[in-house]
Amino acid sequence: MRAAEALFLTPSAVSQQLAQLEREVGLALIDRSQRSVSLTPAGRVLAGYAERVEEELAEAKRELTRFTERLAGPVRIAAFPTVITHVLVPAMRELAVRHPSITPTIHEIYGRPALQELRLGAVDVLITEQDMGLPVLSQPSLRTRLLYVDEYRIVLPPGWSDPPSTVDEVLRRPWVAGDPNQACGQALERLAGLHGVEPRKVHVITEFGPTLALVAAGHGVAIVPELALLDVPEGEVRVSDIRDVGARRLDAVTRVGGTPSGEPDPVQAVVIEAIEEATAALEDSLRTRLTQEVA
């Protein structure tokens, strides 16, 4: 069960893969005779070799990078729409100038499926989001690097004549709520719990575009991150000046490399550096935009 959780797979999928591996090597790798499953001596030997192979491959890639004196190769990045639009697109533009032999590919995938793809090697860099009130993702095989703290804002229909001025007041209005498995939905649940209010979720929406369209049409209030407001025409929604609602964190997650520090390989490292620079560049444009729109 713990192996399945670490790999973000079902227990049956892990069992099937282990059974296939045992057939290939012709030896039992798992001792199933006891209540607690453990590796056989052959299993421990094979696990040790697997760790060394991964380390050797990572070291070989670093040596080849130094040998060629330039960074090259594919990097697969998984992210969600707001980050793709406002972070990855400018980061890729800069990478094309600095490192034209690096070929990034972007996949719109997030949540547990994205973590599974990263853990299995189908993705190299994963951009995640989560409410700052939750524990940081921690897996021995993964390395998490904070990219950006994206403050939440409460958005209101522009036609409301009596906008709420406190968190307690806004919680009692109709809501265009976020998915509870995503950061904004997690934020609403956290605030509701702190204030002892059960919010009236008229709509539950995953993407920010439909959320903001429903708010603009007068169907309720919503929590969105500041980054999402860059996609909204000025005046379409009203940005409340209520600020004590928290933030989401955006992280770059990679598999732990073969170095003692666990750093990603050089190609992944420069991709993450470009992403960090693009994220930092957002701050000025956000401050300018929101200063004009705050009610």
Q: What's the helix and strand layout?
A:
Elements: H1 2-7, H2 11-25, E1 30-31, E2 38-39, H3 41-68, E3 73-79, H4 81-98, E4 102-108, H5 112-119, E5 125-131, E6 142-156, H6 167-171, E7 174-178, H7 183-195, E8 200-205, H8 208-216, E9 222-225, E10 238-239, E11 247-255, H9 266-293
Parallel strand pairs: 3-4, 3-5, 7-8
Antiparallel strand pairs: 1-2, 5-11, 6-9, 6-10, 6-11
CATH domain class name of the largest domain: Alpha Beta
Alpha-carbon distance between the two ends: 51 Å
Per the CATH scheme, the topology name of the largest domain is D-Maltodextrin-Binding Protein, domain 2
**Can you give the mean pLDDT?**
83
What is the 3D form? globular
Topology, number of strands: 11
Q: How many structurally independent domains?
A: 2
Q: Provide the structure class.
A: alpha/beta
Instruction: Describe the sheet with the most strands.
Output: 7 strands, mixed
Helicity, as a percent range: 40-55%
What is the strand content?
15-25%
**What's the alpha carbon Rg, rounded to whole Å?**
23 Å
> What's the architecture of the largest domain, going by CATH?
3-Layer(aba) Sandwich
Would you list the SSEs in sequence order as H and E?
HHEEHEHEHEEHEHEHEEEH
Low confidence ranges: none
How many individual helices? 9
